[in-house]
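Our consortium's second objective concerns turning raw sequence data into structural hypotheses that experimental partners can test. To show how far this objective has progressed, the report includes one record in full. It was chosen at random from the queue rather than selected for favorable results. The single chain below, 75 residues long, was entered without modification.
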Amino acid sequence: MIEKLFPIKVIGGWDMVDTLINNYYGVTFTEDFGAFKSGDEFSVITINYWDGIIDGYNKEGNEVLKTQKFKVEAI
């Protein structure tokens, strides 16, 4: 799966944590996006669309390695 809003490729699927918070599994960034660089791989990332934060976690999924704020505007 390739996410259309963010430059990520998702291998392991995703889960909805809350209405505007999703976890994505087996993620590779396909382009540079702030703190995340093309080719960065994470076992889990959490995208919080409400607060505008992406967290990339270590292999165990218990430590945030990188965080990036973003802004989304409805058009």
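The partners drew two points from this record. The longest strand covers residues 21-29. The chain has one domain: 8-69. Both points have been shared with the crystallography group to help prioritize constructs.
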